[in-house]
Write a structure and sequence with these properties.
The chain is of the alpha/beta class and 285 residues long. 41% of the residues lie in helices and 9% in strands. The chain is elongated, with a radius of gyration of 26 Å.
Length: 285
């Protein structure tokens, strides 16, 4: 919003890196003045496009009447505009804290492409499962990206502590407990005499967790292999292994398949052994 007329210009200080001589809009964050290029804000964000146009009081964002950014720290805003003015032309080797800040502000101000950039880089840094689940839910990031985090919690030696449970929510903890039970049952069905959560096959864990958290199975690089079908379908001991190829996990949701890609199969189908044999006729349904 435009600056209050009671705010003295003398009380502002210019940011050492982002008060640009040829900038054409000024932002005030806390007591620091940024002079930037309006083009980036209007190009990237409908939030700012609606707010930076001319008002009844004249042009918004002049040095004498800067646009005030509320509820944001100076360092956080500097981290955000760094995306536009990065002198190294590279986004690598940044901290997870910086990308989380950029994700938060890009979500708040509706910078779609910067939000996508932040998510891509957060996928490359190490986030603990609970932290990642919490952050991604808070900022409405695609839940499909949380499958590895849920798998890590599911195969942990213990369930989340009461404090961690409060962070995750009761619903998530109950789903994790149910998934663990289902994984152990499935491992037993596959012939494991003394199954443990740590020894369960990864593909089984993946399918069970995907089912309980309503996520599509991802396997762009390898097939999802479901073994041990004899226990469920009267096949002999030498029955061939069932293989389900899963590509483009969003295809089933959108009703579109690119080229010769195979539609994503629900996790329940993988658990029940739907694959190349009798299940073939149902794959497109």
């Amino acid at each position: 919003m435009p600056a209050d007329s009671t705010l003295g210009v003398s009380s502002m200080k210019r940011h050492q890196d982002y008060y640009l001589r040829d900038g054409n809009i000024c932002f005030l964050v806390e007591s620091t003045l940024f002079r930037l290029h309006k083009y980036f804000f209007e190009r990237e964000s409908d939030y700012f496009r609606d707010r930076l146009g001319p008002s009844s009081e004249g042009e918004v964002g002049s040095p004498d009447s800067p646009y005030i950014i509320h509820d944001t720290k100076t360092d956080d805003f500097a981290d955000f505009v760094w995306v536009f003015y990065n002198p190294a032309y590279s986004y690598s080797k940044q901290t997870k804290e910086k990308w989380l800040t950029i994700l938060r502000l890009a979500t708040q101000w509706r910078f779609a492409e910067i939000r996508n950039l932040a998510i891509r880089h957060l996928e490359k840094v190490k986030l603990e499962p609970i932290e990642k689940i919490t952050m991604y839910k808070r900022y409405l990031v695609d839940s499909e990206l949380l499958l590895p985090s849920y798998m890590a919690l599911c195969t942990s030696p213990t369930l989340p502590s009461p404090e961690e449970g409060r962070i995750l929510t009761l619903d998530t903890v109950l789903k994790l407990a149910s998934a663990r039970e289902r994984v152990l049952l499935r491992a037993s069905e596959l012939g494991c005499k003394t199954p443990t959560i740590a020894s369960a096959p990864e593909d089984v864990v993946r399918a069970v967790v995907a089912e309980w958290f309503d996520l599509a199975l991802h396997s762009d690089d390898q097939n999802v292999r479901v073994e041990g079908q004899a226990a469920n379908n009267n096949a002999g001991d030498n029955a061939a292994t069932e293989v389900v190829t899963i590509k483009h996990p969003n295809a089933a949701k959108k009703g579109k398949v690119s080229g010769d890609a195979t539609q994503a199969l629900p996790a329940q189908n993988v658990l029940n052994g739907v694959g190349s044999g009798a299940g073939k006729g149902k794959r497109g349904s």
